[in-house]
Design brief:
It holds the Pfam family APH. InterPro entries: Aminoglycoside_PTrfase (IPR002575), CHK_kinase-like (IPR015897), Kinase-like_dom_sf (IPR011009), Oxido-Kinase-like_Enzymes (IPR052961). This is CHK kinase-like domain-containing protein. The chain is of the alpha+beta class. It has 2 domains: 107 residues, 2-Layer Sandwich (Phosphorylase Kinase, domain 1); 206 residues, Alpha-Beta Complex (Aminoglycoside 3'-phosphotransferase, Chain: A, domain 2), CATH 3.90.1200. The protein contains 10 helices and 9 strands. It has a 5-stranded antiparallel beta sheet with strand order 1-2-3-5-4. Strand 2 and strand 3 form a beta hairpin. The longest helix is centred in the last third of the chain and has 23 residues. The radius of gyration is 20 Å and the shape is globular. The termini are far apart.
């Protein structure tokens, strides 16, 4: 896709928002599998973000997963994100970009959003300090608490990009008989978990941005938001933000911080619920949720760095827990 300052579509869009003339464009990054671009548009009065999706006829994935199922999953993900930003984002308390405009000319889609950078969320972090971990855990706790038992119409019936029903090819490729055998049971346990809520679905560190002091976080990229067990988000976040060699040491701290924030958020959003009951229902599912993610990763890319001694140990713990309790 060629992007130019003189792009008539962008200028028409900016003019319709009353923002005057485009001064310059900055391509922040291409979208996954070359499905478009994330663009920062500098206007005369402010900057904004355009997520410009142009789906090719076939998805070409670096890991070789280029099936029709992969294409349909990606196509649905962009429509889900459109739904999130047009129907859910405005009422979401945990900080997300506000939607300025959404254009659906499928397979071409455009989301026009607030530029979080100009709103003070200027930092993208590759190596998280505790202040960044706390900010993200606080964000997740608020998000999960607010959306317990909420509607998810138009979003994924089962959130996360690794949900079993959408990853049958990776399950077939999985070379771990014990995990493969239990994949359906794991999925069922998580799907039926008490206090269902919305999950971000791709809550990796790279999808958060921070204020300069790191004390506030905002989240982006809602292609896989949908109903699910909150522990799925916690697993994905920890897998991306904590060094594998530190996971054993950091796990209790991560869980304790999250549930302390969740308690406060439940008191705000769900005063009729007992925080102790929610924690008792969710905390034991942390290793189960990690086993679910491990099932995907080991089938998708068996050499991936997220497969390590910690994740293998946690997966074995989950399988044992399931055998003893289900």
């Amino acid at each position: 896709m060629s992007i130019k300052v003189s792009d008539h579509t962008y200028q028409t869009l900016v003019s319709s928002l009353g923002l005057g003339r485009i001064v310059s464009l900055e391509v922040i990054q291409p979208l996954w599998s070359n499905c478009g671009y994330l663009v920062r548009v500098y206007c005369q009065s402010k900057s904004l973000i355009i997520k410009h999706i142009e789906l090719p006829k076939q998805i070409k994935n670096a890991k070789g997963w280029s099936s029709q199922a992969a294409y349909q999953r990606k196509l649905r993900s962009y429509h889900v994100e459109m739904c999130w930003y047009t129907s859910f984002a405005k009422s979401n308390i945990a900080r997300v970009p506000q939607t300025l405009m959404a254009i659906n000319n499928s397979p071409s889609l455009m989301l026009v959003m607030e530029d979080l950078h100009s709103s003070g969320f200027t930092q993208a972090i590759e190596s998280a300090q505790k202040v960044h971990l706390q900010s993200c855990l606080k964000w997740l706790a608020s998000f999960h608490a607010q959306h317990i038992q909420n509607t998810y119409e138009g979003l994924w019936e089962n959130g996360t990009y690794w949900h079993l029903a959408t990853r049958r090819d990776e399950l077939k490729a999985l070379d771990d008989p014990a995990l493969k055998k239990m994949a359906g049971t794991i999925d069922s346990i998580l799907t039926r978990a008490p206090f269902p809520t919305l999950v971000h679905g791709d809550a990796k560190l790279a999808n958060f941005c921070f204020t300069a002091d790191g004390k506030l976080a905002a989240a982006v990229d809602f292609q896989y938001v949908g109903r699910g067990c909150a522990m799925k988000d916690l697993v994905l976040f920890m897998s991306s933000a904590v060094d594998p060699n530190q996971c054993v040491q950091m796990e209790p701290w991560i869980l304790n911080q999250y549930f302390s924030y969740l308690k406060k958020s439940l008191e705000q959003f769900q005063p009729h619920l007992s925080p102790a009951e929610v924690e008792a229902a969710w905390r034991p599912l942390f290793p189960v949720a990690w086993a679910d993610f491990q099932r995907f990763i080991k089938g998708w890319c068996p050499s991936h760095w997220k497969i390590n001694d910690y994740t293998e140990s946690l997966t074995k713990m989950a399988l044992k827990y399931i055998e003893e309790n289900y």
